[in-house]
Amino acid sequence: MFGTFVGTGISIWQARIAQTAAIAAKNAAETTQETLEISERAFIVMGNPTLSGSPVVINLPLTNTGSIPARFVRVIAYEETVTVTNQTIIEGHWGNLLPVEEIPPSSAGGMTITLTTTAHFANMSKIEHGKQAVVFAGKFEYSDGFPETPERTAWFCANTLWNPETRVYHLVPCDASVMISQIAKDIGYPSHYEGQTPIATNGKSVWLLQ
Length: 210
What we know:
Blueprint: H1 2-40, E1 44-46, E2 50-52, E3 56-64, E4 70-83, E5 89-103, E6 113-119, H2 124-128, E7 132-143, E8 152-163, E9 168-173, H3 176-187, E10 196-201, E11 204-209
Parallel strand pairs: 6-11
Antiparallel strand pairs: 1-3, 2-3, 3-6, 4-5, 4-7, 7-8, 8-9, 10-11
């Protein structure tokens, strides 16, 4: 009888050890997969926006700094121009930019996607002298290259800010959620939708929000 108890106890003990080892192996595999995804996944980041021309054109570069291609990139963007003194809205529009099939990683010589919008009623001289302000905001969604991970969403936002002391304007980052909510309210979203046209220049894909 004692031998039976001992044998049963050993069997239970061995089963628990095997179960613990299996759980540990599963956790280790999941950790390894997570580490791999973090280190190798596609990762789209916003570059330095620029503002120029007449009519005023806003360029916002997006680059994949990860190790594998980002796929099925979709972008929705909003733009608004206002008079600084009384916050009068001069213009505002939004658009769904055509999807990009793939953005290779920059380390592999991948292209930069430049989001471009024209602020038709903005005046560069007034922006440079702090009389007008322009904001360009939105979000982009994409697959990070791992089929089982959820779709990634990232936000972008840039607006002009005039410094009265230096008398120079800067294009600075802003809170996308706040700005998008405000622009959508101002323009009566989903009204004021603008079309989009894909073009290519200097080997880079450029998406123009008219």
